[in-house]
Amino acid sequence: MSPWVLGAVLVLCGIAGILLLVHLARDRVVDDGMFLLLGVIELALIGQLVGGCVALAHTDRDVSGVLFASYLVGNILALPVGAFWSLAERNRSGTAVLLLAVLTVAALEVRLDAIWGGAA
Fold first, then answer.
1. pTM, whole model, 2 decimals?
2. Which among 22, 42, 44, 55 counts the fewest CB atoms within 10 Å?
3. Residue 59, SS3?
4. How does 4-21 read in b/e, with b if 16+ C-beta sit within 10 Å?
């Protein structure tokens, strides 16, 4: 699994998290630019899913394949669920749910790196 993708996703999640905190502090709903940033993160996660599955198929590491693949798939689902929820609730709580989804993706990324390193 590529450390570049991991780093890029974590940086993008950090940027999105800071912007969402600003939106929460100003009591503003999420705008289209934020959803564009979330789309970029989602594309990186899809690339990570494909690359992770290929790397898993070709690795000699002691990695639980089912656990690793389930984290990859779960990571892809977190942002769309948060985005749809945020669109359904166009107020401060919708922004908070989106922030929680971004933080979930960052936490899953850290866990994916640990699983790939052999810490099941």
1. 0.92
2. 22
3. coil
4. ebbebbeebbeebbebbe
